[in-house]
Amino acid sequence: MSIKTSKYVRRPLYVDAVQITKANFLELAAWCMGEIRTNEGEVLIENPWPESTNGVNPADCHIRIRVHDPKNFRQTKGFVGDWILYSKMGYRVYNPKSFRASFDLFEE
């Protein structure tokens, strides 16, 4: 008996990615249509988008993101330091270690 194998290649996945920082926290929440919630108790922060930060401390909050096919609840939460990715499949959240292991900067 002879087993015949075929070669396959994983298609490149091109994404737009932004790392969450304290400075871009509110802007990123608006960009991905996310909700800002407290880390303690998951309390929704109502209307945080006017020009001021409305007292939102990114260190005490996270962005709840509508994610395509999350594997666990953590994958729907973007904390400072995490990466938010957008592709034709929708949004994804990666922690810094997973992002570095999975993606390289695309150079044209």
Question: How would you characterize the overall build of this protein?
Answer:
There is one protein chain. By secondary structure, the chain is of the alpha+beta class. It is built from 2 helices and 6 strands, in the order βαβββββα. The protein has one domain. The protein has helices at residues 25-31, 96-102, and strands at residues 16-19, 35-38, 61-64, 77-78, 83-87, 90-94. The strands form 2 sheets. The chain has a 3-stranded antiparallel sheet with strand order 1-5-6. The model has no long low-confidence stretch (mean pLDDT 89).
Write the layout of secondary structure elements.
Elements: E1 16-19, H1 25-31, E2 35-38, E3 61-64, E4 77-78, E5 83-87, E6 90-94, H2 96-102
Antiparallel strand pairs: 1-5, 2-3, 3-4, 5-6
What's the gist of this structure?
With 108 residues, the protein is α+β, with helices and mostly antiparallel strands.
- How many distinct domains? 1
Give the topology string: H per helix, E per strand. EHEEEEEH
SS strand fraction: 15-25%
Query: What is the makeup of the main sheet?
Result: 3 strands, antiparallel
| Largest sheet strand order | 1-5-6
Question: What's the count of strands?
Answer: 6
Assembly state (oligomeric): single chain
- What's the end-to-end separation, in Å? 47 Å
Shape: elongated
Would you tell me the overall average pLDDT?
89
As a percent range, the share of helical residues equals: 10-25%
Provide a count of the helices: 2
